[in-house]
Design goal:
Rossmann fold, 5-stranded parallel β-sheet, homodimer, alpha/beta, 48% helix, 7-stranded mixed β-sheet, 23 helices, 595 residues
């Protein structure tokens, strides 16, 4: 292994691919693998098949040696015993990299191991680096390369993921796709005969486009090299490791599955902590944590403010904080006074902040500011009102109209409302806050009525919205949509809810960038929700709290190692919002669909 | 309190309801509460409002005393200071039960407590029993009674739930609705001035239609009575308690939220175990566990068989079992031989059963039978292939065609396929297995090709399907749908996937009833999925395993107490499937939509 990185560069950015075992039979992996590759990769994909003249309309080759052009990557989807010969052909052809999807090597016993060693020897002698065997393949976003055995939903994005378990990796990738998290690289590495787990991790560490590294690990073949590698990577970006193996039974299952021997979990856990690795214990937690790192600043301490739409939510969150070693400190008297000014007398008068069923829904969005301003608060958990869409979905599944339904009747009472809407939107887009105020101020009572608020609260809220160009633009969009309601009916109302939801996400991003403190929100629903700006509602407070504690741990590690730069070092994408350079509708992209 | 149960009967089945504080202003709880009630309850709902002539088109009354007819239930949605007078009117009117949604009582301090005591005294003297104050209301399915402050999605079903936290209760009810779990009763009981937590629990215990009891608890006012009550209920049906309070900070938050003092959690936990209560620590776990109790038999021991579509899933599941105190025993040689006959040589040859990427997808559905037949196996965890819909969704979001897409081209190769389909369906519905065999056997190679299987496996699978009337009917439906594919295109294919998914759910119910052992399946997705028959795919193996361990704990408790009757005592609904009396398309109903 002279320079593992160079091999990986070709692997992730080949100019051409051959699929050895490409098939017309849709019940074979050689079919789905070939379909996947041709569906996304822009360069030539050559099917290699000993018996067919053509595969899915493409001229087939009996051997890679018959291919006229160069082949950078060979994907093997043939029975294990046929791999050595095919590998010899690849070496002769000058192929530099491979992905061996075929199973039937070390995991089947001594004969399989001998076969694997033979393949490895041929490849090493021929200077061919390969992934696998017994793996599912890989995804590389810049090359749109889906060298994968079944259809893998994947998008471009800031994460990189290597997994020793193909199935669990595939289901994590599917969930990530549904949440809107994209990956620059994904590798199902299998038992890793040639390119090792550590090689992928080192590669991800060196790639500045990768902001967070994920790994599913069952066993290590070279513990020292692994530790050295992750220790280095952790100084630059978080490494999140999901590794089972706490029990004897599991060590046995791992042996049978991947042929690798799992070490003592206790030793592993200690070593991980020392290296700065973030360890998780489920697929959900892996994604929750990755998204937390990407969307949130690294908090400077363990003091949490909680703002909740319901007392029981606050109780549960305080419990979760205690379990995770986070503090829920008392609030100073001036903050209690400030909150008393916006909430009814029955509010909890402390942390967790619970307005006790207040219907002044705008006041909920002022409370984070009052909390985040405090030096003694390092992070906010915003419960229950982090997603308007979630709330209105709940209300509507109960068959109830939500506030937006009342917009048409209220607008009909205002003469010239369409013109007023147009003028306000124009003034907002022009950044003329004075003019906006002149137009809007007479109507504050109307807005207050619509949102169950009062003029004073709406006034304070307007000040915040007008202070940021991004929020002004979001408000212009929402205001403009009001004029569509009369024409579009239900669809127009849906649009307004969606725009209000965007505005909340942007407001949270605004608070986050202003105070440089994490804001983790929770939803009313157990349905995982997609990332929206800096806002990714966690399904339970326990999950939000667990992620927050991991952010603190990582910052503490960086500070101990002298490698801490600034809170926002991971969520660079967020800065784009503030600068108004958001890729998609002012909301930063954690994922990008590709062809 | 002479007979708390009698008061509760009227509360849950009133003939008429008055809403004191019903309002035309949609920014008031008196509006949404009134809308909720009139939208579902069949009896008269009287709006009481001091200032309005009518509320939402219904004649309004200045006081309950002005109402001509009898009032069984009064719902209070007025400011706390106005409650005593309104309560006096109710007593004078002869109202027997109430729901006080209004907040501003003991949780606000000594003055509030005095107000609460006054209300309690008036009600007690007048023989009026009430829920609350500071609660969200209740749902009672037989009466279609939604005496609730906001739109609560709810369906009829076998569960009952009392919560001391209205918000967390509401979000749990919403999630339950989305999962397809219905409730016979739901009560947000608030701090419970009059009717106590224990009264609701006792009432649920006595109601034979309630099969599982859920409770969210922050504090207890009478620990002894609570223990006595749940101990009694637990002998009849499972009681699942979600109670935070493990820390000091939490005890404080609870004090501020509900005014009740939380006791030592350690003591509580021990007492719960002794009483037979199933304790959980999150909203998700509460629902996961309730659904587990309702859909699964109570296993006789801790030995788990695991069948998985991927080695890493098996590793993770074995880890989860070890953590939960469940065993994953070795398989006896004859079972290994039987599995070797249906899986390729590379399969794991042990428990967890991992066919290592076998594409013979029908073989996966035979494996459960081989495992469940074993005396040494008490339960099965069926991973990854428990939901076809989940798998095909994953494949399709990756842009790949799934096997059903190939049906039209394959059918086009068979002369007279439409007639054949009709004859097979008729023979299946007639229960004429011999005739089905005569028609189908020549086409087994076709079926094998379609599902990537072989004739021998398809043949064994057919034997199972033909052995049960329910499965024969499900198969008839699926086969009939084949003839629609040509006409309906994509929609027809979706229908087939759905019917195949139903068939898998019914097959699992068949195995479950045959072997009287739990079968918990897991999905590829983190999206919670609705219940389907005996099949409710858990999002992770950790969740399935945790539920399974709770089923074992409960059975052990029942056996210790001499109260164990039979494994299926909870999932009586399942018997309907076997008897062919399923309410909705042969799939048992855990929830039923109502008007």
């Amino acid at each position: 292994m002279d320079n593992p990185a160079s091999g990986l560069d070709i692997l992730f950015n080949p100019r051409s691919v051959a699929v050895i075992g490409a098939s017309n039979n849709w019940n074979k992996w050689g079919y789905s693998t070939f379909v996947n590759l041709t569906g996304s990769f822009a360069g030539p994909v050559y099917p290699v098949n000993r018996r067919e003249e053509a595969v899915l309309g493409c001229r087939a080759y009996r051997s890679v040696l018959d291919i006229e052009g160069d082949v950078d990557l060979a994907v093997f989807v043939i029975p294990a015993p046929a791999v050595p010969d095919a590998m010899r052909d690849c070496v002769r052809k000058g192929v530099r990299t491979g992905v061996i999807i075929s199973a039937g090597f070390r995991e089947t016993g001594p004969e399989g191991r001998a076969l694997e060693n033979e393949v490895l020897r041929i490849a090493r002698e021929g200077g061919l680096r390969f992934v696998g065997p017994n793996c599912m393949g890989l995804w590389s976003a810049p090359a749109r390369l889906r060298a994968y055995m079944f259809a893998l939903p994947s998008m471009d994005g800031p994460a990189a993921f290597v997994t020793q378990g193909g199935n669990v990796g595939g289901s994590i990738m599917t969930s990530a796709y549904e949440r809107g998290l994209g990956f620059r690289r994904y590798v199902s590495c299998g038992p890793a005969a040639d390119i090792q787990l550590e090689d992928y991790l080192a590669h991800f560490g060196q790639d500045d486009e990768v902001k967070v590294v994920l790994a599913y690990i069952e066993g290590l073949s070279d513990g020292k090299r692994f530790l050295d590698t992750v220790s280095q990577v952790c100084l630059k970006k978080p490494v999140i490791v999901y590794k089972p193996g706490r029990s004897e039974a599991v060590a046995k299952a791992i042996l049978s599955h991947s042929g690798s021997l799992a070490g003592s979990d206790e030793i592993f856990d200690k070593a991980m902590r020392k290296a700065g690795v973030t360890r998780v214990h489920s697929p959900e937690e892996l994604l929750d944590t990755a998204i937390g790192f990407l969307t949130q600043p690294l908090p400077k301490g363990r003091n949490v403010g909680i703002v909740t739409g319901g007392g029981s939510f606050g109780v549960i969150c305080a419990e979760d904080c205690a379990a995770a070693g986070l503090e829920v400190p008392e609030l100073p008297e001036p903050s209690i006074e400030a909150l008393s000014a916006i909430f009814p007398p029955r509010w909890s008068r402390g942390n967790p902040v619970d307005p006790a069923g207040d219907r002044n829904f705008i006041a909920y969005y002022l409370a984070p500011k009052i909390i985040l301003e405090l030096d003694g608060i390092d992070a906010l958990i915003f419960m229950g009102f982090g997603s308007l869409a979630g709330i209105s979905r709940m209300l509507r599944s109960g068959g109830q109209k939500v506030f937006v339904h009342h917009i048409p009747e209220m607008l009909s009472g205002i003469e010239g409302s369409t013109e007023l809407i147009g003028e306000v939107a124009d003034a907002l887009l022009a950044g003329d806050s004075g003019r906006v105020r002149g137009l809007v101020d007479p109507w504050l009572p109307f807005v207050a009525l619509l949102f169950g608020s009062d003029v004073k609260t709406v006034d304070a809220f307007m000040d915040i919205l007008l202070s940021s160009p991004v929020l002004r633009r979001a408000l212009a969009k929402t205001v403009s949509a009001f004029s569509l309601v009369a024409r579009q009916g239900e669809a127009g109302l849906e649009k307004i809810l969606e725009l209000l939801d965007d505005m909340i996400a942007l407001l949270m991003a605004h608070y986050l960038l202003t105070y440089r403190k994490p804001i983790l929100s929770t939803s009313f629903s157990e349905m995982p929700q997609p990332i929206k700006g800096a806002s990714h509602p966690y399904t339970t407070s326990a999950k939000a709290v667990s992620v927050l504690s991991k952010l603190v741990d990582y910052r503490e590690h960086l500070e101990r190692a002298g490698a801490f730069r600034h809170e926002l070092q991971l969520c660079t994408l967020l800065n784009r919002v503030e600068e108004g350079r958001g890729a998609e509708g002012d909301v930063p992209a954690y994922a990008r669909h590709q062809g």
